[in-house]
Amino acid sequence: MFDALNLESATFVGHSVGAMIGLLAAIQRPQCLSSLIMLCPSPYYVDEPGYVGGFTPTDLEELLEVVDSNFLGWSRATAPIIMGNPERPELGQALGASFCRTDPAIAKRFARVTFLSDHRADLPLCGTRSLVMQTRADMIAPEEVGAYIVGRMPNAELALMDATGHCPHMSAPAETIATIERFLER
Amino acid sequence: MPPGEPPPDTLPPEETLAELYDDAPCAYLTIDGDGRIIRANNTAIGWIGIAREALIGLSLRTIMTPAARIFFETHVAPLLATEGLAQQVAIDLKCSDGHRMPVLSDWRSVVRDGRTIGIRAMFVDATDRRAYERDLLAARERAEETAARLTASEAELRELNETLERRVAERTADLERAHEQLRQSQKLEAMGSLTGGVAHDFNNLLTPILGLLDTLQRHHISDNRERQAIAGALASAERAKTLVQRLLAFARRQPLQARAIDVGDLVGGMAELVASTSGPRIQVLVERDPALPHALADANQIEMAVLNLAVNARDAMPAGGTLTLGVYAEESGSGMIRLVVADTGMGMDRMTLERAVEPFFSTKGIGKGTGLGLSMVHGLAAQLGGNLTLHSEPGRGTTVELRLPAVDRPTPVLPAASEAAVRCGAPGSALLVDDEKLVRFATAFMLKDLGFTVVEADSAEAAIRMLEDGLRPNIVVSDHLMPGMSGTELAFKVQEWLGIPTLIVSGYADVEGVAAGLPRLSKPFRRKHLAEALERMSGINLAA
């Protein structure tokens, strides 16, 4: 995509898994990016001796099993948010009908890739100026992870936010924007 | 009743919040801004299984399964942030004893001054519900699978149907081909019948023509032109005779002398003749199986067949090639031997191949061949109890296979039926029996010319009457096919009764009709044939 858009000195903003994708891309094409903004990132989700990933190995087993048997969670009500268009509720309805259950094939794949990928070794390879935005009480990426990332990247700083949860861009958009702008202005 | 107290068995007018909250049928939790549980009702504590003192202060994630944690973060938290509530969320709680409890949850943000300071959650036990939903989903999946299988089956069936039509078409085509083959062989059969009948009649007509002309020729006619005229007429009659013979061969009605012969030796002996007929540009190969049984065949006719086939082969290779003559023992069980004439010539296309055996069908052009060769060989094969098959590929060559019944050992040559009647001296008298007046006239003429005195009878019955009346000829000459008693029957009677030999004259070579071993003469015949036959039969010398 970088090549297709002919980017040079761009700023990349990624959330969660998207942040890690940005990291890997920055390693491949350092000349395309001047800044890397990572929102609630995590290089590896599973606890190990000396590393807090947030999920125990048992958790992981259970998670993958649950995903295999097709049940993460189910709520028709969540559809409008995912569509991102509260003014057009009918879109949410339509999506809800097809989305109220996570698509099994996609969920399985995604869960496996996400939870079995370990990118800790890639962290030192990214020299791009980076911002790690960490929230409190994130049930997916615990606070220890933010510190870990910043400790291993050559050119990264940590911003600990007031917002809680894994999606501050949705739950606390103003703080999220402000934090990013502060970083970019410097 | 004491005043101020509610009557028994009725709800008190005031219910406390604790009463309403603590033992509600659902679980209530309050969570602070940092995600920690700060209040729980009794039902919640009972379900989760952690004592109140221990539960208060624990982070919400502790009582949530990994899946629920993810779902909360990705779906519930964003909704709470934008809408302030999230309803009917199905997740699983993690209880202290490790078991998973399916619940249906409702969440409300607690907001003060526009800021979210906490969340209140309600959980309803959804164990039954979840089990029911799972069953439904499984049933739906099964239904989808079945539908997919059904679609696949339908597709298969459709394809089967389509191929069925094609297969039926193929079968019908096969059937039609078989019908066509049957029609072809029936046609040949009919042609054979017709031809046989016509040929027989022709032979009868030719007998006086040939016989009388021949006899005339032997009379010394001084006028040169008259001699030439007779010679011309005779030559024409000869050609007619040959033609009729070939037709009879096709009709499988030629007179055959079938004996056990070594076909391998016979073909081997023809190699030189075939080579010289074929010319220098054609290489002639002769092969035979070492252990070759004898075959039941007429040696002369086989030689003629081989020559015919060799000529066809030669004509198919104008630029040269290889002609193979082979005699092989056939595969066990068939009881046949196989005579093969194969060439590497121009071959025949399918249409030509189908008609090749038809009499008068020829691709050689006017004047080159009668078109009777293959039909004769075909007739010969059938008459001998074998068959003829042709294989050909345009540009590659043709292989003709003649199968003949194998015999275990040579059949003994039957002794001449009338060795006892060796005579010498004058020919003597002959009793001539024939129902056809013209033929009888011609034969009588020829017999007289040979020195016999002739008494004529127009039927076997008449002949017997004459013999009963005391007639004692030296020989009897009789046509075979006559109304009433046949010549063969007459011959046996006369031989048995009076010991007089009979020469059977047959035009219609009904093999079963004329017993093997009886002296025989084929119509039409010339004087010398008659003389030879009579000599063979009775030992008298008619060389005059």
UniProtKB/TrEMBL annotation, chain B:
Modification 4-aspartylphosphate, positions: D479
Domain Response regulatory: 429-538
The entry's keywords: Coiled coil, Phosphoprotein
EC assignment: 2.7.13.3
Catalytic activity: ATP + protein L-histidine = ADP + protein N-phospho-L-histidine
Organism domain of life: Bacteria
PANTHER family: SENSOR HISTIDINE KINASE, TWO-COMPONENT SENSOR PPRA
Record NCBIfam families: sensory_box (TIGR00229)
Protein name: histidine kinase
Classification lineage: Bacteria, Pseudomonadati, Pseudomonadota, Alphaproteobacteria, Sphingomonadales
